[in-house]
Specification:
By secondary structure, the chain is mainly α. The chain has one domain. Helices cover about 65% and strands about 0% of the residues. The chain has three helices and no strands. Helix 1 runs antiparallel to helix 2. The longest helix has 28 residues. It is elongated.
Amino acid sequence: MSTTDDFRYKSHELLIELDAATNHMMMLVSARKVAGFEWSEAAKRQKLAYETWSAFLYAPETDPMPCLDGRASGSYGPLAD
């Protein structure tokens, strides 16, 4: 599987959770339940879903090859001392 497919799959998974958490909060607003334990749990779920999505989206890209081919990270030459 290509990295694009991996990105799309993980994005889809995270966005489904974010959408579900946001929809749950909107349902609570419609039901006038914007305080208490249920609201707090829904808000935590939505916040965690957003933070997880954001961390995935803006994760630093790493080059896996230095550890595999013996060169220093960010270089084309041999391992740095």
